[in-house]
């Protein structure tokens, strides 16, 4: 820990991920992004990185719950008939994701595509926050929930690396939380984009393997080891 401008600033991993003030935010583990048969897969995107990342995120979440961390699932949503979209957002979703315009209904409310993948599901003790744009902070109650629970560190896992994960991690920092990104518990459809995003994110905040975070929790709660 350092003292800068009269503030105590966390510098060590054990300080950052102390369960007393840490939330694990699981970003968009949904069928349209992660599953065969979802919109990404139907659009021909490479899904090979997702199974390992889902497994790593599931283990991270399991250990987080056991250590006493708050776990928050983020669920991307879209209202039917364009009620939550704009031309700018549709351009991003359809053109920049190289999807057929008919696939603009990604994560449509109530659809199978919007459901959480079988291998990574919330439990009753977890919180679900629904979002409408890439960042889990934009237009949601996530910041309020984090502050209610006196959270200082946001540990990010989920999908996709260069999109919703990076957007949420950046905003966590802008909202004055400590962002920690778990590099093996995130994935995207393009390895080049994944590595490029991680290169940028490492210049901004902590990007670490899941074992580094879990090891700190196990030190505090030896029964987890």
Automatic annotation (TrEMBL):
One protein family per Pfam: Isochorismatase
Gene Ontology molecular functions: hydrolase activity
Alphabetical UniProt keywords: Hydrolase
Domain called Isochorismatase-like: residue spans: 22-200
Highest rank taxon of the organism: Bacteria
Entries under InterPro entries matching the protein: Isochorismatase, Isochorismatase-like_dom, Isochorismatase-like_hydrls, Isochorismatase-like_sf
Name the UniProt record assigns to this protein: Cysteine hydrolase
Species: Siccirubricoccus soli
Lineage: Bacteria, Pseudomonadati, Pseudomonadota, Alphaproteobacteria, Acetobacterales
């Amino acid at each position: 820990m350092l003292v800068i401008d009269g503030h105590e600033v966390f510098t060590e991993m054990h300080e950052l991920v102390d369960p007393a003030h840490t939330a694990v935010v699981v970003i968009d583990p949904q069928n349209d992004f992660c599953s065969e048969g979802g919109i990404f897969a139907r659009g021909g995107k490479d899904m090979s990185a997702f199974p390992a990342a889902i497994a790593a995120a599931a283990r991270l979440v399991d250990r987080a719950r056991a250590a006493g961390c708050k776990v928050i699932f983020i669920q991307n949503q879209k209202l039917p008939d364009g009620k939550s979209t704009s031309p700018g957002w549709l351009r991003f979703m359809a053109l920049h994701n190289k999807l057929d315009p008919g696939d603009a209904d990604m994560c449509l409310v109530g659809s199978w595509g919007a459901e959480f993948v079988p291998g990574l599901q919330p439990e009753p003790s977890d919180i679900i926050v629904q979002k409408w744009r890439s960042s889990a902070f934009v237009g949601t109650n996530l910041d309020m929930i984090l502050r209610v629970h006196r959270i200082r560190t946001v540990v990010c896992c989920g999908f996709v690396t260069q999109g919703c994960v990076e957007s949420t991690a950046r905003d966590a920092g802008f909202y004055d939380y400590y962002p920690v990104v778990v590099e093996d518990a995130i994935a995207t459809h393009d390895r080049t984009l994944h590595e490029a995003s991680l290169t940028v994110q490492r210049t901004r905040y902590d990007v670490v393997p899941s074992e580094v975070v879990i090891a700190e929790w196990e030190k505090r709660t030896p029964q987890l080891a």
